[in-house]
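Worked example (supplementary).
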Amino acid sequence: QQQVKQSPQSLIVQKGGISIINCAYENTAFDYFPWYQQFPGKGPALLIAIRPDVSEKKEGRFTISFNKSAKQFSLHIMDSQPGDSATYFCAASRRDSNYQLIWGAGTKLIIKP
Amino acid sequence: KAGVTQTPRYLIKTRGQQVTLSCSPISGHRSVSWYQQTPGQGLQFLFEYFSETQRNKGNFPGRFSGRQFSNSRSEMNVSTLELGDSALYLCASSLADRGNTGELFFGEGSRLTVL
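After joint prediction of all chains, the assembly is encoded as:
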């Protein structure tokens, strides 16, 4: 019940296209869902996050879509650019566990110019 | 504000040896977490320290240990190294204030190779 399942494992998208990464969870007590972005040779960094009281959050070209009933959330990258090539991790956490993150397995995204 | 600093950045050890990795968190951050990252295995949580106490622990053998000092700096130790311990070890700090969502700020990692 503590797992977060992330797909796909890897993704290749043409420049200008839409990149979509999906995550699913089981524990309905999760109340915070962040996405982290990791470039080669660097540690992950927070990209965008959402709480379950909203269905969508947008920051620039990055959007999280959240489906509470399906227990799924996804990251959409619009107008994908080569600079977006990175590994993306979704995660979930709960306030009553000090927001200890449960991580997805990661998606390696490659944007082809 | 300086970021999370990890030392050393690269190291090579042989099987059976032990290693100590160091992490200096962002000033004011009281929580330090450690992760192991290997290709295909994602981010595996090792442990979290808050105010010098281990608050959470992942599913790793007892060869992996850590500690946190009064200035929030942290070290992790791996004893009796095995080939499978070769990985990038990431440290992350967070404010961990009450009600804070616990955004993690990662260092660039210590890459350990075990021969």
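Two points are worth noting when inspecting this output. Chain A is about 0% helix and 50% strand. The mean pLDDT of chain A is 94.
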